[in-house]
Amino acid sequence: MPALLGPVSRCGFSAALLVLWTVFAGFSRAGAEHAATATLPAAFSDLLPHFQVEPEDEYIVKNKPVTLTCRSTPATQIYFKCNGEWVHQDDHLIERTVDPATALPIMQVTIDITRQQVEKIFGLDQYWCQCVAWSTTGTQKSQKAYIRIAYLRKNFEEEPQGKEVALDQEVLLRCHPPEGVPQPEVEWQRNEDILNPESDPNFFVTADHNLIIRKARMADTGNYTCVAKNIVARRKSTSAAVLVYVNGGWSTWTTWSSCSAVCGRGWQKRSRSCTNPTPLNGGSSCEGQNIQKSVCVATCPVDGGWSEWSKWSACGADCSMWRTRECTQPSPGTGGKDCQGLDLQSLNCTSEQCPQSECTTYMKKKKKNRDCGAEDVALYVGVVAVALCLTLLLIVVVLVYRRKKEGLDADVADSSILTTGFQPMGIKPKNSHLLTIQPDLTTTTTSYQGTLRSRHDTTGKFSMTNGTLLDPLPNGSHTLHNGKLNPDPPEFVSRLSTQSYFKTLPRDVANASYGTFNFLGGRLTIPNTGISLLIPPEAIPRGKIYEIYLTVQRKEDLRLPLAGCQTLLGPVVSCGPPGVVLSRPVILSMDHCSDGCLDNWALRLKKQNYEGVWEDVLLMGEELVSEPYYCQLEAETCRLFSEQLGTFALVGESLHMGAAKRLRLVLFSDAYCSTLEYNIRVYCMDDTQEVFKEVMQMERQLGGRLIDEPHILLFKDSYHNLRLSIHDMPQAHWRSKLLAGYQEIPFYHIWNGSQRYLHCTFTLERLSLSTCELTCQLCVWQVEGEGQSFSLDFNIFMLMDSSASALAGPSAFQIPYLIRQKICSSLDAPCPNGADWRMLAQRLKLERHMSFFASKASPTSVILDLWEAQHFHSGNINQLAAVMADIGKQEAMIFLVSDGEC
């Protein structure tokens, strides 16, 4: 039958079908069920078959065969071909129906594929089947269906490990499921309950099936299991016990109790409890005392006491006199009792002291008149005294006023002299176009603070001679190399510092470039920063020679106004002098750290004016060719065409949360470690060369070394912080000294860009000085944001620099002195078979120094000196003994000499 199904020509196709129909017509009813040939009505004889059902990919589970189905209309034949060979007709099960809508005949065929067929012929992943349908017009092939044997290994490639973590600490549980076909799905269980990260955002499952608990809660304590499943089986990893513990914390101190003594020396105390929070699940208890005592002195109560009685008063008109006393000896205090008794006593006068006769009345009136006269005299005397005082005060005021007036006249004279030199004057220089700030001629007075010398100091004046912005070049010839003179850098910077436009610039020669240019132009470059200034030919007018500088400003020294979602995207660059007249624009190149998509940003170029105020001079995408500024933004570089020099900064304002800054993450560690502590510093900076250069210079001074290539992170405007954490340290050898499980850099510290670089330091502690290897993982991601998340794996091999700066005596050598003497006496003498110092030099791979060794009185001694210098830190004296034994000298046994014998 397969021979009848071979390819035939279009002309003989109908004849072949007729033969096939004649053959199949004689089959029995049972055989007809397997026949795959039919005739078509004449109305449909010109239609190609099309498939209503095509075979799909299938997986064989255990030993159960799979069934492939194919349905086509209209079709006269339909058969399966598996891996290029026709399936026998007896293996086909064919059904014929008619489409009620179109009256077209429908043929459906099914076959079964067993596990033995797949394994025996084509292995696990290569077995495929395809359906072929015929009609009177032509043939059609269905899609290929691949049949694979499904399986799932038993053993996980990596299982989660139990951990004990503090409250709110991040937890990372790793899981690498077993190999399987189809790819197994992974889910996590806690105490046999399935975890759903969508319902509980505290859980996060990474793309590589790891489980992250963002902040460990008490409810997160339990047994965690990684479950892998596919259509074959379901596998569970070993459970990892996660214990969330709480370290105890002290509550606030209570107020001090009252003093234990009512009077005199006593004690008072206050207490606190380890309940903020209470230690749980093995967390550490609070350290320190829960009760504090203090000495107190209670003031004793003082009872009041009467003072002495005053003298009796004179007898009054009512014939009575009185006296008083006060409760002041002592006064009652601190709860003491008041004085008991009367504080006023009165007594009647005697009859002799209180006469009631007329004479007595007369004498009283006379005395009263006399008293009134005395009161009038006293009044007059007081008025006279007041008048004298006023007169004296007036005299003093007049004298003081005269003296002050004389002093004021002198001051006014001096002030007029001082201000005369500062009256505004009309100055018309030879080259008026070089004046960038005109003097204010409307000012009539000058505010002055300081000394007279500072008023007349003219060192800071701007020289306008010869039409140049700097002092005129001295007469004589100058050799100009590529348009740049080679002045002494300190002298050049010192000279520029006297000019008004350079007073605020840093004198850091490493971050500045300067030169002298004429109409031929040139280029200024700050090495390793990506910052350069191209001065095209003819940009400087002919006949002019300018001294031009290029420098990087420190961001923290500038007050760059940033509002809303604005951020600094590159360095702040100054080029000048600002008043230089250019015939054509120069090109200032500097790095930027935006993602380069203008749809995400509104990019502005800011320029600092002469008053120090920042102004927007360009909006990217809306440049006008008539303006003095034009900008071209490349992937990592900004090219500014400018007809004016000055201080520039590129500022970006994010239009939505899809905008991102490129950050560069750089890792440094201690190059040498002689203590138990070891530091890893992770710098987060803008992805510009000038910041990276500065960090590298600083780390060289700190003695750090780069432990990994810099990595790029896209930091998005999502208002979320950047989090860094270290995981998977070997607990048997290392532990972290950080109290928290991670460190965070606030979003606004990065987005604001006012700081040149930010860094986190991870302080680790090794449990033994002999541990010299560290393998761990650093995770960096933007918390709750849409930023990238990636991991860095690194190995650190620390160099132990425990050598002292000065060593004397035997401690400076590895070979003891007596052993050294025996080796020299054994190898210095020539040996006929060559077993002497020459063979030692060859075995130590020092034969290129043979002539040098031979010129010395003891060649062996010189060889051993070189070996000591090369192998002081890492030398193996047993290896040297093996070399001696290989030479054939019995003196190799001398290496076993004890320290006492040496």
TrEMBL record:
GO biological process entries: anterior/posterior axon guidance
PROSITE patterns: IG_LIKE, TSP1, ZU5
Signal peptide: 1-32
Localization in the cell: Cell membrane
GO molecular function: netrin receptor activity
Membrane topology, record value: Single-pass type I membrane protein
Keyword Phosphoprotein on entry: no
Record-annotated Ig-like domain positions: 161-239
Chain segments annotated as transmembrane: 377-401
Domain (ZU5) ranges: 511-654
Record carries keyword Magnesium: no
Domain of life: Eukaryota
Family matches, as Pfam families: Death, I-set, TSP_1, Unc5_NetrinR_N, UPA, ZU5
Keywords: Cell membrane, Developmental protein, Disulfide bond, Glycoprotein, Immunoglobulin domain, Membrane, Receptor, Repeat, Signal, Transmembrane, Transmembrane helix
Function statement: Receptor for netrin required for axon guidance. Mediates axon repulsion of neuronal growth cones in the developing nervous system upon ligand binding.
UniProt record similarity statement: Belongs to the unc-5 family.
Protein name (database record): Netrin receptor UNC5
The organism of origin for this protein: Takifugu rubripes (Japanese pufferfish)
